[in-house]
């Protein structure tokens, strides 16, 4: 196991885990704002939708980075005594499951507590926790099954001439 790149890979997983639940609502906010502005209707509502879009994107990114950082720390600590990938998967799943309620706060603030938004986010909770668990072995460097986690970033580092 190599510790190089663990934080970067974990932050990528964290951004996926926290980004997917906010994307439908961010798209809806943008669509409603564009329609309101285009038809010349309630521009105050359109501005509120754009603020909601900013809260969703900014809050989702912040929650993703924090989830990734905590995931990196937990998986690094767990990877020392645990030899198999199943233990890492459970640790990643539980860690992401515990941290996922931050998404409820982001969605709740942006949607003013809408029931549909909370219901969909609640349904995505176990799915996103499982996604983090499935990527745990890649995060700590025990496997290289997901290429998108191992691509160097920024892209300029791909070749050294």
Provide tags for this entry.
single chain, 161 residues, mainly alpha
- Straight-line distance between termini: 28 Å
Helix content: over 70%
Structural class comes to mainly alpha
Indicate the low-confidence ranges by residue numbers: none
Number of helices: 8
Instruction: Give the biggest sheet.
Output: none
What is the typical, i.e. mean, pLDDT?
85
What shape does the CA trace take? Answer: elongated
The succession of helices and strands, N to C, reads: HHHHHHHH
SSE blueprint:
Blueprint: H1 6-19, H2 23-39, H3 43-79, H4 85-99, H5 101-111, H6 115-134, H7 136-140, H8 147-150
Structure description:
- The protein has 161 residues and is mostly helical.
- It contains eight helices and no strands.
- Helix 1 runs antiparallel to helix 3 and helix 1 packs antiparallel against helix 6.
- The chain is elongated.
Quickly describe the structure:
The chain has helices at 6-19, 23-39, 43-79, 85-99, 101-111, 115-134, 136-140, 147-150.
């Amino acid at each position: 196991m190599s510790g190089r790149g663990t934080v970067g890979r974990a932050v990528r997983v964290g951004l996926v885990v926290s980004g997917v639940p906010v994307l439908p609502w961010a798209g809806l906010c943008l669509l409603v704002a564009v329609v309101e502005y285009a038809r010349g209707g309630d521009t105050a509502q359109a501005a509120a939708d754009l603020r909601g879009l900013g809260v969703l994107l900014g809050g989702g990114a912040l929650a993703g980075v924090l989830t990734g950082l905590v995931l990196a720390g937990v998986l690094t600590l767990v990877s020392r005594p645990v030899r198999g990938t199943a233990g890492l998967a459970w640790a990643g799943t539980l860690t992401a499951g515990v941290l996922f309620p931050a998404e409820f706060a982001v969605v709740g603030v942006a949607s003013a507590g809408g029931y549909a938004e909370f219901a969909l986010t609640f349904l995505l909770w176990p799915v996103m926790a499982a996604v983090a668990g499935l990527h745990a072995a890649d995060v700590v460097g025990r496997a290289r099954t997901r290429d998108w986690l191992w691509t160097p970033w920024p892209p300029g580092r791909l070749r050294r001439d």
